[in-house]
Amino acid sequence: MGAAIIEHDAGAGLDRREPAPPHGYNQYFDEWHEHDLTDHLKRDRNHPCVIMWSISNEVPESVKNGEIETVKILRDLCHKIDPSRPVTVGCNHIQSANESGFTEQLDIVGYNEGVESVFEIEGDRIRYPDRKMYLSEVPHSLQTRGEYRTHPRYYRPGFDHPKLMEKEVFPETDVYYESPYDNSGVQIDARRSCRPRSE
Question: Which CATH architecture has domain 1-138?
Answer without folding.
Answer: Alpha-Beta Barrel (3.20)
